[in-house]
Design goal:
- The protein is mostly helical and 29 residues long.
- Helix content is 79%, strand content 0%.
- It has one domain.
- The longest helix is centred in the middle third of the chain and has 23 residues.
Length: 29
């Protein structure tokens, strides 16, 4: 299913973005 692949990619990008934000702004977490 393309929908599940799209969701998986979206979750992967969100996880990477979350890690980048956590590294750049450690005081927020």
């Amino acid at each position: 299913m393309i929908v599940f692949e799209f969701i998986a990619v979206a979750l992967g990008v969100a996880a990477i973005a979350y890690l980048v934000v956590a590294l750049v702004n450690p005081d927020r977490f």
